[in-house]
Design a protein that fits this description.
Elements: H1 21-36, E1 44-49, H2 51-60, H3 75-80, E2 82-83, E3 90-94, E4 99-104, H4 109-128, H5 130-139, H6 143-161, H7 163-175, H8 206-213, H9 238-245, H10 251-272, H11 274-291, H12 297-310, H13 326-341, H14 343-352, H15 355-362, H16 365-370, H17 391-403, E5 414-419, E6 425-429, H18 431-434, H19 440-454, E7 458-463, E8 469-474
Parallel strand pairs: 1-4, 6-7
Antiparallel strand pairs: 2-3, 3-4, 5-6, 7-8
Helix pairs in contact: 1-4, 4-11, 4-12, 5-10, 6-7, 6-10, 7-10, 7-19, 9-10, 11-12, 11-13, 13-14, 15-17
């Protein structure tokens, strides 16, 4: 088990090694190779843990998470920590300084050797990618410790207010965890309280200008500054909005909303760069394994077999799902980029891009055909019209199909649009930009959660599949 570090930075110090002697010998050598290729990373604390711990992290997100027993498997973390591609191995790494990586002690040496090399790719990505850098700076580099401190605060709230009440608030916050606005900073000032006063009309001529200068001739201000409405414009960061403006929220409840919001910010880059990031880590584990002449032959062969499981294109023998394995797609894209444009260019791309630009800029016709991705586009019932579609158009459809689930953290775009004078809240579903219908059942459930903390009537305006305006409301007593 590695020690844990609190607070102090030790940039580029060596990584803490896991408790397996062979593995502990490989780690520094992999690190050196990675650095020789130009990778840069904060140190990694590797920790060997039992499988049960891993499952818990995969479900709850952070290892010492807010104590909460009614989670079920949470949405974001299914993307974030999960099996590596199509293999049965879990990989869990929390970016930061230091990074924290958890390896399952029951894995074979070869599997953990691969995971170790893989994690170094992630560590390089999260230190250098712009989106990761921005979020890490805002959230701080010590999310695991922060989560532990938070769990204690929530434990205190449970002692004071009882489990049920605390869980109800946590449920409400978690139901909204994708509803943040990553264009806004994590630490936002409140809305301005007043609108700026109307500017004075410019003077008509020189005479009027001089007349205005005379002492005692200032016209009485016709308008005082008006109170600004809340929100002054549509607000998409629902967690922030409720924490700051819910009329009857207690401090401990606000705390929970802001805590969930902060973790959502922290995980956003992992979500928005998943194809790039998993592909990059997979490219580097494959390359480091291939170049590591110190690995015993059998360890190498077993590790390479594990690699082909990780980057297998589809989950089953046929391409069952529309879900492309991000490890496979990312790995192939990076291999192609490095082969055709060189490693320096690849390092620039990993710094500047996210999945949206990565797929649009680098997934071309040839690669899509080679990976047989166009097969995904054939919808049953398309009949003979398939061949009339212009090729380019098809490539666009394919790219957008891969990216579609990633827009807005995978959630429908919903904003808080107004609070009436008696505190009723109206939410609006932005169906124009969304292109997704709202699942009204789910919307009702989420509305119930919001109503629980808003404690006044809440309504949601949307448009159903037929283009009809629909209003879902919740006005029963909280």
């Amino acid at each position: 088990m590695s020690g844990t570090h609190h607070g102090h930075h030790h940039h580029d110090a060596t990584c803490q090694t896991p408790g397996n002697p062979e593995l502990a010998r490989y780690v520094p050598r992999f690190e050196q190779m990675a650095r020789d290729h130009g990778l840069q990373f904060y140190p990694v604390d590797f920790e060997l843990v039992p499988n049960t711990f891993m499952m818990e992290v995969a479900v709850y997100g952070l290892p010492v998470r807010m104590p909460h027993w009614s989670f079920g498997v949470r949405y974001i973390y299914q993307y974030v920590q999960h099996r590596m591609g199509n293999s049965r191995i879990f990989e869990v790494v929390f970016p930061g300084d230091p990074n924290r990586a958890y390896l399952v002690d029951a894995n074979a040496l070869a599997e953990n050797t691969l995971v170790t090399a893989h994690v170094l790719g992630h560590a390089d990505f999260s230190r250098n990618n712009t989106l990761f850098q921005r979020m890490q700076q805002e959230v701080g580099y010590h999310i695991v410790e922060q989560a532990a401190a938070r769990a204690q605060r929530i434990q205190a709230a449970i002692q004071q207010h009882g489990t049920e009440q605390v869980e109800a608030v946590l449920d409400a916050a978690l139901a909204l965890e994708q509803h943040i606005d990553t264009n806004q900073p994590l630490h936002r000032p409140p809305y301005p309280e007043t609108l700026p006063a109307e500017p004075q009309r410019p003077p008509r001529d020189a005479f009027e200008a001089r007349f205005r200068e005379l002492p005692g001739e200032h016209p009485a201000p016709t308008r005082e500054a008006r109170r600004a409405p809340v929100p002054p414009r549509p607000e998409y960061d629902l967690l922030w909005f409720i924490a700051k403006y819910a009329p009857d929220l207690d401090d401990w409840e606000r705390d929970i909303f802001l805590a969930v919001r902060e973790e959502s910010y922290y995980f956003y880059p992992v979500f928005a760069c998943q194809i790039m990031n998993e592909g990059w880590a997979s490219y580097w584990h494959a390359r480091l394994l291939r170049e590591a002449d110190f690995l015993p032959g059998q360890v190498y062969l077993d590790a390479i077999k594990t690699h082909s499981d990780v980057v297998r294109p589809y989950a089953g023998s046929q391409s069952v799902a529309l879900s492309v394995n991000p490890y496979h797609l990312g790995f192939c894209l990076w291999e192609r980029i490095i082969e055709e444009q060189g490693l320096d260019r690849a390092l620039e791309i990993r710094t500047q891009e996210d999945d949206f630009s990565f797929i649009r800029n680098h997934l071309d016709q040839d690669l899509a055909r080679e990976l047989q991705l166009f097969n995904y586009l054939r919808r049953p019932g398309a009949g003979g019209e398939e061949r009339y579609i212009v090729q380019d158009r098809k490539l666009d459809t394919l790219r957008e199909g891969i990216l579609q689930p990633k827009f807005n953290y995978g959630a429908p775009r919903v904003c808080a649009s107004r609070i009436s004078s008696n505190g009723h809240l109206t939410l609006t579903h932005d169906h124009q930009t969304d292109g997704r219908g709202l699942d009204l059942m789910r919307a009702r459930k989420v509305l119930d959660y919001i109503h629980r903390v808003w404690r006044r009537p809440v309504m949601l305006e949307t448009v159903d599949h037929a283009g009809e305006r629909k209003v879902v409301e919740n006005s029963r007593p909280a």
